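Fold this sequence, please.
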Amino acid sequence: MADRRMFSLAQSKITVSTVAPNPSAFTTLGSSPAALAWSVHAVDDSLRKELVPTTKFSMEELKDGLVEALKSRSKKLRRTMLEVALIDSVNDSEKDAKLLISLAQSIMADVEGSKVVVNLIPFNDIGHPTYRTPSMEKVLGFQKIITDGGVLCYVRTTRGDEENAACGQLATSRSK
């Protein structure tokens, strides 16, 4: 995508996102000419295992893989995004926010010249009996805790949820 003979997109405009199935996934993705995004969803190991059942490694092991990959990259490609699908009363507590701050700060401390941005994605309602969309008040409160902790944090604008076509909704739709 960054190839001048093809799309010629700026490297800073391309992001490769991963749930990080293993620490070496970051090494593989780290060689690409794109920004890296890690779909963290929860820093607490037991909660992350619940939300990302394919997880087989601890957050510490995965973070170490990301850190090593970032160290091998040029300084202009050391910006990383931590993505969290924020779910009402599941991973949106003050404790969850503080764990996320700690993770972001630890990555920035370990990798010279790195920047970590948190991207909050309000969970899209898919009719799940337990997982619900948090109120915008809770989302903004979570964001405030992160930014007050010194970490840049954005809230992703939801698009397509009125048509049940937002992130996570298409895979749960059934044809009638």
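The beta strands are 15-18, 35-39, 79-86, 115-122, 152-155. The longest helix spans residues 94-110.
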